[in-house]
Specification:
It is a multi-pass membrane protein. The protein is of the alpha/beta class and 611 residues long. The protein has helices at 2-9, 15-37, 39-47, 69-85, 89-139, 142-145, 150-168, 171-192, 194-214, 218-241, 243-248, 252-278, 280-304, 311-352, 412-419, 442-447, 463-467, 476-485, 489-492, 512-526, 542-556, 591-597, 600-606; strands spanning 373-382, 387-397, 401-406, 427-432, 435-436, 449-452, 530-534, 560-564, 576-581, 584-589.
């Protein structure tokens, strides 16, 4: 129920629809109960229990208190029928039937209005939950996703929200309508026969206990189903991403087996869940028939033996009793759905409640420019247990190009992750113009940085929209100029639609070198004062590397650059080269100086052949 209350918080912005829904449901429940009470005078006319032509009832009844409410109501209705119909029973019957039609019409009008308002409330809540999960997913640090399956995150945003939409959120419709229907109906039943109504009060808690017992394990079973959905999506996502490798290594059967194992588990879990759900309807149906049978027996005694209840009132009473069954069954289904949807709500809330260690401080500083230097001050960092950087210190003056080189695992790319604040340092500080980057707003920090990574990450959009991610206000001329600087205009101008050409999923319509030049153009268009190049040429062939290198040199002019390089041929002109080994600086200097030192850098150079 705690998760259900969390979901209800999302309904607050739609309270005007909730108020309209509640008011409509009040009248729906009221007219629903009155429509059965209106049957009594019609039955009286049919069975001659209150003959409208009788002279005994032409006097207007007098209200004598709540204890005499039922007789007062019946006599009033009979009096009104007599006044309208005089001695014509057919006219009396027509009047009563017209009243019943009007009551049912009003009931259904307000029922429609209740559903009308609920559409906006329910769909608004679903939209806001989806938006909240997506926003939190984007905000969370990269460390969160290193421990999660992508498919499981996708399942929470899609399947789990859908589960809420079709299981827990429909309960919002039941919160007012069904309880009010039961309350108004019971009031009418108490007016007709208090002793007969006692059986209803006995039935409700007994049925509640039985229904609770049946639905006890629904949440656990539902949670297993949802987790398995995440596994299925993860396997599918991994398959689509690595399809080239799967085919190349003849691993189709292995992945088929993995996928089928997951779908088989899903099959068994779903069978158990749905069969438990299917038990709800027959259980509540049987309990309803059981109570109706008891009421028929006991009510029949009151009519036929004790003569304390007239036949028309008893028939109307049975209609009211049946009127309770529908909302009672709906409430029992709602309780099942809350249990089932609870697992989905818990998985959704788990993401929403995940703390963000990289959240901006209160009164964080907005950095609007870069003036003097970047300082790494005795920083140490570890992803898990072992430090990948140890007491790393470095000063990068404005306008200088600093290259970081070293073997794989030496901590080069970690520097890029820390300066962009994808992770926070464990010890030490990173300063820009003397300000700790943890004291800056994340947006203003990253607005000072342009990033080009080893994998050219592009989106299924046009070239123009891919480039404008970091600069929405750029004109087409700005986009073309950035493409020229990145040495990419030469192939973009020959594409069918130029900068409006869609490049496909992950830019798969382009070659590796073309994709990398577009990612460089994207950084150029953003025009930040600091560039971070994380092995931007390591995945390219020699010809593509030459073109990209020219683009990089164009981009780095008059900018402060941190270049993380695997291919040492790309950083010979750097102002300073930092050589890392196991997270520590072992050498630093210019290319020729380091070659002359005949140390670690010289060994790295000797292992690579230069053009």
């Amino acid at each position: 129920m705690n998760h259900f209350r969390n979901i209800l918080r999302y309904a607050i912005p739609y309270k005007r629809f909730a108020i309209g829904h509640i008011i409509s449901n009040v009248f729906f429940a009221l007219f629903g109960a009155l429509s059965f009470i209106a049957l009594i005078p019609m039955l009286d006319v049919l069975f001659n229990e209150k003959d409208p032509s009788s002279k005994e009832i032409i006097k207007k009844p007098v209200y004598e208190g709540i204890g005499n409410l039922k007789d007062y109501y019946q006599d009033t209705m009979a009096y009104q029928v007599h006044e309208f119909a005089q001695d014509d029973k057919s006219k009396a019957l027509l009047l009563v039937i017209t009243c019943i039609i009007i009551l049912f019409l009003l009931k259904n009008i307000f029922g429609y209005l209740a559903n009308y308002f609920m559409v906006f409330l329910r769909n608004g809540v679903v939209r806001d939950i989806r938006n909240r999960i997506y926003k939190k997913t984007v905000e969370l640090p990269l460390s969160f996703f290193s421990e999660q399956r992508k498919g499981d995150i996708m399942a929470r945003v899609t399947n789990d929200v859908s589960m809420l939409e079709y299981s827990m959120l429909p309960v919002l419709e039941l919160i007012v309508r069904e309880p009010l229907t039961i309350i108004f109906t019971i009031i009418m039943m108490l007016i007709i026969s208090p002793s007969l109504t006692l059986f209803v009060f006995i039935f409700i808690p007994i049925s509640g206990i039985i229904i609770s017992y049946v639905g006890k394990s629904l949440k656990r079973k539902s949670e297993r189903v949802q987790k398995e959905q995440g596994t299925i999506l993860s396997t599918l996502e991994e398959t689509l991403t690595g399809l080239r490798i799967i085919k190349g290594f003849n691993a189709e059967e292995k992945f088929n087996g993995k996928f089928q194992e997951s779908t088989t588990r899903f099959y068994h879990f779903s069978n158990k869940l749905l069969n438990r759900q299917n038990l709800a309807s027959p259980t509540s149906e049987f309990l309803g028939i059981l109570v109706i049978s008891i009421l028929l027996w006991y009510g029949g005694q009151l009519v036929l033996v004790d003569n304390s209840l007239d036949g028309s009132s008893f028939i109307a009473y049975m209609g009211l009793a049946y009127n309770i069954l529908t909302p009672a069954k709906a409430i029992s289904r709602g309780l099942y759905n809350i249990k089932q949807g609870g697992a989905a709500a818990e998985r959704i809330q788990e993401i929403i409640d995940t703390p963000n260690p990289l959240k901006d401080k209160i009164n964080a500083i907005v950095k609007t420019g870069f003036d003097s230097e970047i300082v790494f001050e005795n920083i140490s960092f570890k992803y898990q247990d072992e430090y990948v950087l140890k007491n790393f210190s470095l000063t990068i003056p404005k306008g200088k190009t600093v290259a970081l080189v070293g073997q794989s695992g030496s901590g080069k790319s970690t520097i890029a992750n820390l300066i962009t604040r994808f992770y926070d340092v464990n010890e030490g500080r990173i300063l820009i113009d003397g300000l700790d980057i943890r004291d800056l707003t994340t947006i203003s920090l990253r607005s000072q940085l342009g990033i080009v990574t080893q994998d050219a990450i592009l989106f299924n959009e046009s070239i123009k929209n891919n480039l404008k991610i970091g600069n929405d206000n750029a004109s087409d001329e700005d986009v073309i100029e950035a493409l020229k600087i990145a040495n990419a205009w030469e192939f973009v101008k020959d594409l069918p639609n130029g900068i409006e050409t869609n490049i496909g999923d992950s830019g798969n319509k382009l070659s590796g070198g073309q994709k990398q030049r577009l990612s460089i153009a994207r950084a150029v268009l953003k025009s930040p004062p600091i560039m971070v190049l994380d092995e931007a040429t390591s995945a390219l062939d020699t010809e593509s590397e030459r073109l990209v290198q020219i683009a990089l040199e164009n981009m780095m002019k008059n900018r402060t650059s941190i270049v993380i390089a695997h291919r040492l041929s790309t950083i010979q002109n750097a102002d300073e080269i930092i050589v890392l080994n196991k997270g520590e600086i072992v050498e630093k200097g210019k290319h020729n100086q380091l070659i002359a030192n005949n140390g670690v850098y010289k060994k790295l150079v000797d292992m690579q052949s230069f053009d």
